[in-house]
Amino acid sequence: MPFELPQLRYANSALEPVIDAMTVEIHHSKHQATYTKNLNTTLENYPEIASKSIVEILKDLSKIPEEIRTAVKNNGGGFYNHALYWENLTPNGSGQPSGKLAEAIDKAFGGFTPFKEQMEKAGLTRFGSGWAWLSKKGDGSLLIHSTANQDCPLSEGLTPLLAVDVWEHAYYLKYQNRRADYLSAIWAIIDWKDVEGKFLA
Ligand code: MN3
């Protein structure tokens, strides 16, 4: 199997009380695991694609044969977007961005508070299932946006830095229909060192 489900670097319960243990367990070991399995199954007869990295695959979906393109977009996106999401989270949230990332956020959004407001709005206004993102453009500047389903910023020529899953499966057990509460709570568990690392990479 070319693609393996990445292990979490914290316990399922470690993100409580922001995200409950049952949600983390199901989200990782069922939802993300299924995207991973289906990505491998989709690529079974396409060894030349399966040997590429997921970043390379998602960056240019036009190179994927049409008969499997949608399956690769959905399951490859599901595999990769969730990997970013878990990397972005930490039991010991570091509070605020610092260094070059903080400077770029100030420049693009006028400060950390307006940045958070715009991210929450992006997540809240994404109708149905999808993701809110902080991404880096080709010129190095920052962009807040959202995508539908498992669509990945890589496929739009962007580098995703911060991924916030707004599918109901990410928050429903604890927050039910209150997506806004999930979005405002998640700031307490963002790993800004990880986001900054992705920004500087
Ligand atoms: Mn999800």
Unreliable segments (pLDDT under 50, ≥5 consecutive)?
none
Number of domains: 2
Mean pLDDT: 97
Major sheet: 3 strands, antiparallel
What order do the strands of the largest sheet run in, or round the barrel if closed? 2-1-3
The level 1 CATH classification of the largest domain is Alpha Beta
- Quaternary organisation of the protein chains: single chain
CATH superfamily of the largest domain: Iron/manganese superoxide dismutase, C-terminal domain
Order of helices and strands: HHHHHHEEEHHH
The chain-level structural class is mainly alpha
Question: Could you describe the 3D structure shown?
Answer:
With 201 residues, the protein is mostly helical. The chain folds into two domains: 21-88, Helix Hairpins (Orthogonal Bundle); 99-200, Iron/manganese superoxide dismutase, C-terminal domain (minor pseudopilin epsh fold, 3-Layer(bab) Sandwich). It is built from nine helices and three strands; from the N terminus they run ααααααβββααα. It has a three-stranded antiparallel β-sheet with strand order 2-1-3. A hairpin with a 5-residue loop joins β1 (130-136) and β2. α5 crosses α6 and α6 runs antiparallel to α8. The chain is globular, with a radius of gyration of 16 Å. The model has no long low-confidence stretch (mean pLDDT 97). Bound molecules: manganese (III) ion. The site of manganese (III) ion has 7 residues, from α1.
